[in-house]
Amino acid sequence: MALYEYVTQDQLAGFDKYKYSAVDSNPLSIYVMHPFWNFVVKFLPTWLAPNLITFTGFMFLVLNFLMLAFYDFDFTASAAGHEHVPSWVWVAAGIFNFLAYTLDGVDGKQARRTNSSTPLGELFDHGLDSWACIFFVATVYSIFGRGESGVGVATLYYILWVVLFSFILSHWEKYNTGILFLPWGYDISQVTISLVYLVTAVVGVETWYQPILFHFLYRDLFTFMIIACSFTVTLPMSLYNVLKAYRGNTLKHSSLYEAFLPFLSPVLLFVLSTIWVVYSPSNIIELQPRIFYLMVGTAFANVTCKLIVCQMSNTRCQALSWLLLPMLVVVLVAVTGVAGNETLLLYLWTAAVILAHIHYGVSVVQQLSSHFNIFAFSLKPNSD
Question: Transmembrane region positions (predicted)?
């Protein structure tokens, strides 16, 4: 029995009719990674549930985040004059990141191999992917940090939002077209960052202090690649695919208003969190950047998961996420100075957001497991 029934009866009926449809045109994925994943999946036991593979991969990213939080909580370890992160941590981060990427690639293949593909598996996979964004970005940030040759914490906050919106674009496309267009940037970034972690372990973070050309630093390349990829590839292609469906009368929703409705909650979340960043009395983003990023990334994942549920069940997206209402109160309390201790307020709100998101995720998994009469983490038949 689910803790709470977040998925409506109409959505459950939609899940019954769901058929997976995706397009992957990335040469790296098609010619390198898929053959590699096909090779790896053969070594997995047939009793191993695909969702367990998905969850294990996600936990490798969480482990990376926790490791770097221990050695570089405030993102200063890579700056000159500070005690740097030990080399073995970067080796572990590179291995764990690639393992997470590999497991994310083989979970679907294991599902088809064991004839256990279900809508729950796809929802679980993409739901964890939405939360993984923050763990991935925060861990990568420790390579450069916030020192003189690094990236400012406020700048990284906006870069994080570029990554988050790039992620949601794919699911917004599917919400409108019925087809998931897998972004090219994902595979390239995962392989590249895994290698960068390993290179950092060998050459040290001091290497990234040096300019590539004239005064153009590696941190500038890092920032440029993320923003350029999002605004010159991901965003234009997403808009093109949705407008193409609109002009061809194959758009799944009745108007452009309905088509763009999924952006309302993410945009409001961005506005609220940015107001907190800009008007914080204690400059909270400078004091507690890691926790602030975690709060934003988790709240975003919660909003995105609800879009994915609507997208997969072919139902109308909620205009507003309920999580935004208490967040509005929290932000007002913070920026008006009513809260005597803004850091404590942030910690309490972050804990509340994480618990709310876990409650939502567990409830949805339990509800769909019961609906499809399956176990989430086992291939044994459910006799109930």
Answer: 52-73, 85-103, 123-144, 150-170, 221-243, 255-279, 291-309, 321-340, 346-365
